Each structure stands twice: as structure tokens, then as C-alpha cells.
Here is the input.
Amino acid sequence: MSSIEGFLKGEATAGLMLMAAGAIALVVANSPLASTYAVFLDLPLTVGAGTFALSKTTLHWVNDGLMAAFFFLVGLEIKREVVAGELSTGAKAALPVLAAAAGMAGPAAVYALFNWGSPDLRGWAIPTATDIAFALGIITLLGRRVPASLKIFLTALAVIDDLGAVLIIAIFYTDQLSCPALVASALCMIALAALNRRGVRNCAAYVFVGLILWVAVLKSGVHPTMAGVITALAVPANTDDAGESSLTALEHALHPWVAFLILPLFAFCNAGVAVAEITLDALTHPVTLGIVLGLFVGKQLGVLSITWLAQAAGWLRLPSGATAWQYYGVVLLTGVGFTMSLFIGNLAFTDPEYLASVKVGVLGGSLLSGIAGYVILRLSYRPAPATDHHPGAIQ
Here is the structure.
């Protein structure tokens, strides 16, 4: 099995785990266990040594702490793709880069239409994300009906999408800054750069400095998950005598923990919304409508418009072996936002009523996009004659 096939299989399985965790959260939030669920999320947990202590609720430890490991993995994946993957050359990166950029601008514009002139415009970034695990989880249900080139395209687009989300969080969702903590963060980044320059391959050294960086970033006012991305970008990508890089080793070691523990736990903690909260007012709230239509309409308008323009200008072609309808089906799947959308929603809003609207919007938009994408891909499949054709790289 090739590395890309293994990655796709792992992400697809993780997507199914995410679906299950989200479904369990919805069931629990609407069962007699709802009060226990709420107590669990608000349970205070303290970690510290000596005079140093950090105290947060379970929900905040998951969102601020464990999700830093997810962003660390995102950083590793971004670096891998840029160094030697689907983003390593201009020809490979052109279509997913353009599609990702337009696929973030479209949903943001749709959300802004519903919330312009309101403080709720703060949530503009919520529908811009694509959840690669969820999207590939849906694709895996279709088996061989989806060309491999489209799976690679979707993966590359989602990696760029994640990079965009990281930049959005760092720039637009940062609180008041603490200069001493920022200085400490800068010193940690210098230490990471020095480790990389000296060719240090000991993964533990990067993780140790990364943990210190996480605390410094947490105290600085910047969202602490940024420490995960920064640390990942310092990990060496060049291979050793055994043919494996520190980056690859860390990615392989961390992926199962993130895919099968951290992300399902995040989904369980953040996807629970009581049916009683889904009132007519909640469904028609501008935040809800902006997110639902941003994910379902804005995503496809953005990606399809830039694709049409690029094709009309003769710059790009669709992924090899894919029909226009199959491409459209995958474009619809980019509207499955879930993980990153919920994460940004928690940064944009703190009021429980708004968070309920965020959850309803993200779940509704992702569900519409997922079902529509699945149906289009299933109906557009036409078995091809048996050949030795191997889907090529993205043009």
C-alpha cells in the first residue's frame, strides 16, 4: 500500500469514528444523561507542579490542550505535502490552492450577507473549513466509485484549507496579548529553529520544547493550538540512514491517537445539542443561516466558479479520470465542515445561545453537503472498461 493510500484509508476510518462520536453526543444531549453530560463538560481539572498550576474545564482542556496535538499533526501534514507531496510543485498545487482559496472566500461572503453590520459578523470564518476526515469517511462508503485522483485532490485542498484556518485563528481570533509571554514564545521558536538547523532528529526534543511553547502561547493571548503548528514546522523532513524522516515518524506515531481518541473526544464534547434548543428562532437566526448556506452554497459557488474561470482561461484541467459530475460531487463534500468549523465557532462566540446556533448550523450545513455529495457521486459513477490506466497526479 502506498503512503497516500494508507493516509486516505486512515482518514476515512477516522471520519467514520467522528460520525459515531457526533451521533453519540446528540443522543446523550437529548437523553436522561444530558445533565451528566453537562457536568462532565464543566468539570474543573487542574494540572501543575509546585507553584505552577493550570485549571480548566474538561471542555477547555479538550479544545485548548488536546486539540494542540491535532494542530501539530496538521502542521506535519502541511509540511509533508509542501516538501514532497501534492503541494510540492506549482503544477500539482495550482488547482487545490485556487479551489481552497475560493472555497474559503465563498462561505465567508455568504455568511457576511446574513450578518453584515452586526456583531455576529465575528463568526464569518466558521463555514470556511473543510473536515478531511469526515469528507473521506463519506467517500470510503462509495468504494471504487470515486477516482483516486479526486481523493488526492480533496486531501490536498483540505490541507491548504487547514493552513488557511490556522492563519485565520492566529490573526482574527487572538485576545489581548501579553508581552512577557510573547517573548517566551519567541525564545521557544528560536530553540526549535536551532534544533532544526543542527539537524537534531530526536523527536522528544521537539515535543519537549513544543510543550513549553504551548504554555507560553496559552499565556500570551494567542490561541494555544498555534503552538502545535509552529512546533510541527520545525521538525526535520529529510530522511535518515533508515530512509525515514523525523516528520514521518512523528506523523505515524501521532495519527492513531489524534484520529481515534482526540478528534472523537472533541466531537463528543462539542457536537451535543439538545433538540429543545432547535427552535424556529434558532433555525432562522442569521448566524445559523449564514453557516448552513455558507457551507452548502458558498463552498460550491466558490470552488466551482474558480474552476470554471481557470478552465476557460486554459490554465488548469480537472483531476485525471474524473467527470464533471464526479468533480461536482467532491466539491459538495468540501462543505462538510464539522471539526474546524465547531472549533472556530467556540472561538467566535461564548454565549450558549450562539453556540447552539453554531452547532445547528455546522451540523445542518455539513449534513446537507455530505448527503448531496454522496448522492451525486453515487449516481454519476459509470464503470469504465478494464484497463491498465493509473490515475495521474493533479494537473
